[in-house]
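Saturday, quiet lab. Running sequence design on the structure tokens for the scaffold JK sent over.
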């Protein structure tokens, strides 16, 4: 693609030969002739000057460099668009494989791709341009809306609703039973999990995630939320809009996450906990009580429960205790100085 045409598509300001041919994209250290790279800010100027790329996506305030540039407000976002333009093939329907299994009273929309060994239960509804890769299973009475992609060996249980433009990566299980038991007489008695799962539009779910169905009602993941690989969402959890959950994070039953919540890797949320909008939790953080909106939190330390409860009671007082200790240290020093003067 010519440099000027690429600038037009990205809404970028460009400097350099308008007819420069761009053949692909690569990282700043790997890019070669004909390729486009990107840098997020002036701190990468030295690396950019040493790059063999023919052109670069840069921020609006980037100083001049000895190669063609496309100046944009958000270089990383523009680079994502470039990768889409150069490497993502336009969708073409492959139809329904004669080796797919389709149950009774199934509705399949236009231009779908149902691959070999995909299995659709009874009364399933599939929207337009949906892709089901080999080994995908969709349970009875489930719905998958337009333009969603269900990758290989994904299991979607019965009575599950998947919204538009949802991507589910390989090995994920949506709609398995929630972990609900009642202990009586030395035995654990199963509580039937009769609720469902609702995944709203534009959600992406990584590989080998598990999202449990609700005991009653629905487990809910709202629009725009993204889950990394190996994330667990328990029964009756609600995750708000546009959240980001990193790998191996887990949310226990009946908890609620607000909008734009970010959980670092292996962060955990205790059951029946409410996490407010735009909370950010560091990796391995344990969220054991409600968190108000806008907080940035971190921390993990396992110990005997009685000691832990005592520590939790003291933690909020630590800043004041520190001031008290500092004041006492000053007073002790003053007393020591007076004693020395009288000796």
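Result came back. Writing it out in full:
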């Amino acid at each position: 693609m010519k440099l000027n045409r690429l600038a037009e598509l990205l809404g970028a300001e460009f400097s350099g030969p308008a007819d420069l041919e761009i053949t692909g994209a690569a990282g700043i250290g790997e890019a070669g002739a004909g390729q486009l790279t990107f840098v997020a800010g002036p701190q990468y100027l030295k690396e950019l000057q040493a790059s063999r790329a023919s052109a670069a996506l840069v921020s609006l305030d980037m100083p001049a460099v000895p190669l063609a540039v496309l100046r944009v407000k958000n270089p990383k976002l523009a680079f994502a668009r470039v990768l889409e333009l150069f490497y993502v093939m336009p969708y073409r329907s492959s139809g329904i494989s004669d080796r797919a299994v389709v149950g009774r009273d199934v509705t399949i929309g236009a231009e779908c791709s149902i691959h070999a060994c995909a299995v659709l239960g009874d009364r399933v509804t599939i929207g337009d341009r949906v892709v089901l890769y080999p080994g995908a299973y969709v349970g009875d009475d489930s719905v998958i809306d337009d333009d969603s992609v269900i990758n290989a060996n994904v299991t979607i249980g019965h009575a599950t609703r998947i919204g538009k433009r949802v991507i589910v990566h390989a090995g994920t299980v949506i709609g398995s039973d929630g972990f609900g038991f009642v202990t009586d007489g030395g035995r654990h008695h199963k509580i039937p999990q009769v609720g469902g799962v609702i995944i709203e539009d534009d959600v992406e779910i990584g590989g080998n995630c598990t999202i449990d169905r609700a005991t009653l009602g629905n487990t809910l993941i709202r629009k725009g939320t993204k889950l990394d690989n190996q994330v667990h969402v328990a029964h009756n959890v609600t995750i708000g809009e546009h959240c980001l959950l990193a790998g191996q994070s887990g949310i226990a039953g009946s908890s609620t996450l607000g909008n734009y919540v970010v959980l670092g890797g292996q962060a955990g949320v205790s059951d029946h906990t409410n996490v407010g909008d735009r909370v950010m939790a560091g990796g391995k953080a344990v969220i054991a009580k409600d968190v108000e909106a806008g907080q940035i939190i971190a921390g993990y330390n396992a110990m005997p429960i009685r000691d832990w409860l005592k520590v939790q009671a003291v933690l909020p007082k630590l800043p004041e205790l520190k001031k008290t200790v500092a004041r006492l240290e000053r007073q002790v020093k003053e007393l020591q100085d007076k004693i020395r003067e009288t000796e």
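Notes for JK: The chain has five helices and 37 strands. The chain has a mean pLDDT of 93. Ask whether to fix the surface positions before the next round.
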